[in-house]
Amino acid sequence: MSSKRAMRQAQKQAYAKHRSNITNNRFKLKKKILSKNKKEKKK
């Protein structure tokens, strides 16, 4: 019982980490794109 529970918890944590990585990467990409656009507009 406890090993099943531990496995389930580990999977949940791994999935949560995976989801947060995806959202963080999206924000980083948006920031990069926005900063590139701003620099091009200034020129």
Question: What order do the helices and strands come in, and which of them pair?
Answer:
Blueprint: H1 2-42
Percent helix range: over 70%
Output the helix-strand order: H
Relative strand content: under 5%
Can you tell me the residue ranges where pLDDT is under 50 for at least 5 consecutive residues?
A: none
Radius of gyration: 19 Å
Q: From the helix content, strand content and strand pairing, which structural class follows?
A: mainly alpha
Query: What spatial form do the alpha-carbon principal axes imply?
Result: rod-shaped
Domain module count:
1
Number of helices: 1
Write down the overall mean pLDDT: 81
Count the E strands.
0
Major beta-sheet overview:
none
Straight-line N-to-C gap: 64 Å
What does this structure look like?
This protein is mostly helical and 43 residues long. It has one domain. It is built from one helix and no strands. It has one helix spanning 2-42. The longest helix has 41 residues, at 2-42. The chain is rod-shaped and about 60 Å long.
